């Protein structure tokens, strides 16, 4: 697990750097209002993808080791087409994105729907290297094309949309070739109907993802409504900088999900999850410490003179960021064993806090109120997941503390990987 985890972390770091550079370029060329427009476009695509991933999302990772592709791909592709129709209605009925971006959000979401199916097939086959290379290529193309377009005299937030077409198209083509270039045979016998499992697991996963997205991003809409686009632009920068602490946790969680989905060894899955959880929190803590030590003027230099007050935002978000770092391990464990209902419940509890507390704090405390709300919501989410994990696996609170066994486990995994070479 160590080698793919290191590669995935490196890719996540690269992708985050590319994304931060996109924000830097946008902040200097388009200002806080332009950053607000871009954040709403990204959020609109993400919301549409929640509908698509009911069939074409994370459930495929669980099912790829259990069913042949000829049973999985047709319903996934068909649902992508249906999703595009649903997306068109959503963007017309709901004020998800500014008017001029509506059609583009639908098309971009459709392209992403198709390549997400392919990427999840790669992940289900434990083809982590191909998965990482494609993710890195997408981020690089997005930055390069956006930089070329936005530095023209007519630079505009629409340049981000055109750059997204180039990046998404690159990933679609690359993932198509990678998916059909070899693959593992079905290794775990599964007798249940593939469509039934897709819908059941997809519904549970997407219920959790929808609630978690709202937990993450409902504050964006509240900030935009009560404080305006400029405040949203500043909050999105602080939030994304803080969430860069999830690079390691998400990378480890991705590898954990692939491993647990392909294993029936409950004790091994428990121990691996605990090790990943501790490593995830440690990684996130180090990143947050670095961010808090960065002088405030450096943030303004990097993201533009209108982007101010980032350090206090990071400080207020820090407790929640650490909580969700731990949640990355727990969420991927529950997904890997097909117990996605617990992820949905945890996210639902967090969303409840976001609604109740956010409606009180954001109108009066602005972006600081949004940060406080996020930390409380994330904390309640991981508290629920942690209790369920301990009850289900027989773990104790002491198991959550680092100990020598974690180091030995890492060494054992590394030795096993070296022996296979």
- Share of helix, binned: over 70%
**N-to-C CA distance:** 13 Å
Shape: globular
Category from helices, strands and their pairing: mainly alpha
Q: Profile the largest sheet.
A: none
Average residue-wise pLDDT? 81
Number of helices: 14
Order of helices and strands: HHHHHHHHHHHHHH
Using only CA atoms, what is the Rg?
A: 21 Å
Query: How much of the polypeptide forms β-strand, as a percent range?
Result: under 5%
Our count of domains comes out at: 1
Number of strands: 0
- Spans of at least 5 consecutive residues with low confidence: 184-189, 412-421
Task: Name the features.
mainly alpha; 14 helices; 421 residues
Explain this structure.
- There is one protein chain.
- With 421 residues, the chain is mostly helical.
- The protein has one domain (2-420).
- The protein has 14 helices and no strands.
- The protein has helices at residues 2-56, 59-63, 69-93, 102-124, 128-150, 158-180, 194-227, 229-243, 247-261, 266-293, 296-303, 310-336, 341-393, 404-420.
- Helix 3 runs antiparallel to helix 4 (102-124), helix 8 (229-243) packs parallel to helix 13 and helix 10 runs antiparallel to helix 12.
- The chain is globular, with a radius of gyration of 21 Å.
